[in-house]
């Protein structure tokens, strides 16, 4: 059996983000599905508390095969690329979100996620 292919750390520079603006983006774009606390077994989407540093697909949420086998820990760089186009970054992800094209909005959202 061949070894799992992991998604390498992207070679990108994440702009400085504004967590207050990121909270507004979270409330508008993410809060309908995601929360920072709760039971991942029964949630409609994984909880995001402590996301940065956590292994992708590692909570009790029923992740897609693609997310379970992504093989990386969430970093600002991985989030920056994932949030641009989730289904392209992790093929097969269950996340039904087109993405955030704007780099500053992604940086602001990451700043907010990093503080929770």
Question: What does this entry look like structurally?
Answer:
- The chain has 116 residues and is mainly α.
- It is built from five helices and no strands.
- It has helices at residues 19-29, 65-68, 76-84, 86-89, 103-114.
- Helix 1 (19-29) packs across helix 5 and helix 3 (76-84) crosses helix 5 (103-114).
- Keywords: Heme, Iron, Metal-binding.
- Its main location: mitochondrion.
- This is Cytochrome c domain-containing protein.
The average pLDDT value, as a whole number, equals 93
- CA gyration radius, whole angstroms: 14 Å
Number of helix segments? 5
- Number of extended strands: 0
Order of helices and strands: HHHHH
Proportion of residues in helical segments: 25-40%
Overall, the morphology is globular
- Low-confidence runs of at least 5 consecutive residues: none
Sheet with the most strands? none
SS-derived structural category = mainly alpha
Give the DSSP E fraction (strand runs of 2 or more residues).
under 5%
Distance between the termini: 38 Å
Subcellular location: Mitochondrion intermembrane space
Pfam families: Cytochrom_C (PF00034)
Family: Belongs to the cytochrome c family.
Organism: Paramecium primaurelia
């Amino acid at each position: 059996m061949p070894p799992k292919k992991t998604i390498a750390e992207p070679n990108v520079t994440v702009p400085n983000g504004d967590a207050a603006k990121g909270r507004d983006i979270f409330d508008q774009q993410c809060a309908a599905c995601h929360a920072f606390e709760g039971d991942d077994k029964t949630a409609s989407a994984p909880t995001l508390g402590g996301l940065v540093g956590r292994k992708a697909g590692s909570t009790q949420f029923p992740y897609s095969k693609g997310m379970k086998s992504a093989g990386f820990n969430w970093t600002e760089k991985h989030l920056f690329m994932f949030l641009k186009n989730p289904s392209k970054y992790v093929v097969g992800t269950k996340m039904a979100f087109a993405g955030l094209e704007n780099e500053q909005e992604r940086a602001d959202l990451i700043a907010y996620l990093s503080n929770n």
